[in-house]
Amino acid sequence: MLGTIGRSSGQIRLRVVHTTQAKTLVRHVHRFTWPNCHVFTDEYESYQGIQRQHSTVTHGSKEWARDDNEDDVFEVHTNSAEGMWTGLRNFLRPFRGVSKHFMSGYVAIHEFRVNLKCVSPAFISDLVAVHSFSI
């Protein structure tokens, strides 16, 4: 699976993929991020081709977060992404196993749920407006 999360927006984009090689990861990041965004990853080699401003933490050296600009804020980390995956795992847990055939549907439901943030009257109005009922 691949995922991106906007630190300021909290919006996520999740996809079920068959490989996490560089070609797949880079395509995902470039598709779901703005060209001027800053990407934070761990040291996984497949991230090296990302054409964005890019900072990396080195988990292999026990580095979990880093303060690059010495303002006492550890802005270089992957904690948001780790939390995103924990949220997906917690969402899937009650289903007690999901077939690979249906996994992308469950992931899409979770992505929609996270990105919606709240069910508003405007959302309900839009949802029911697309349906027509005939008696």
Protein model, in words:
It is a single chain. With about 140 residues, the chain is α+β, with helices and mostly antiparallel strands. The chain has a single domain, classed as Nucleotidyltransferase, domain 5 (2-Layer Sandwich), CATH 3.30.420. The chain is about 35% helix and about 15% strand. It is built from 4 helices and 6 strands; from the N terminus they run ββαββββααα. It has helices at about 20-30, 80-90, 105-115, 120-130, and strands spanning about 1-5, 10-15, 40, 55, 65, 75. The strands form 3 sheets. The protein has a two-stranded antiparallel sheet. Strands 3-4 form a two-stranded parallel ribbon. A two-stranded antiparallel ribbon has the order 5-6. The longest helix is centred in the middle third of the chain and has 14 residues, at about 80-90.
List its traits.
globular, alpha+beta, two-stranded parallel sheet, 36% helix, Nucleotidyltransferase, domain 5, 4 helices
Topology record:
Layout: E1 2-5, E2 12-15, H1 22-32, E3 38-41, E4 53-56, E5 65-66, E6 76-77, H2 79-92, H3 103-116, H4 121-129
Parallel strand pairs: 3-4
Antiparallel strand pairs: 1-2, 5-6
CATH topology: Nucleotidyltransferase, domain 5
Number of helices: 4
Strand order of the biggest β-sheet: 1-2
Helix content: 25-40%
Class of secondary structure makeup = alpha+beta
The major pleated sheet works out as: 2 strands, antiparallel
CATH architecture: 2-Layer Sandwich
Taking all residues together, what is the mean pLDDT? 88
Q: Please tell me how large the radius of gyration is.
A: 18 Å
Give the topology string: H per helix, E per strand: EEHEEEEHHH
Shape: globular
What is the domain tally?
1
Instruction: Give the class-level CATH name.
Output: Alpha Beta
Give the number of DSSP strands.
6
CA-to-CA gap between the ends? 43 Å
Low-confidence stretches: none
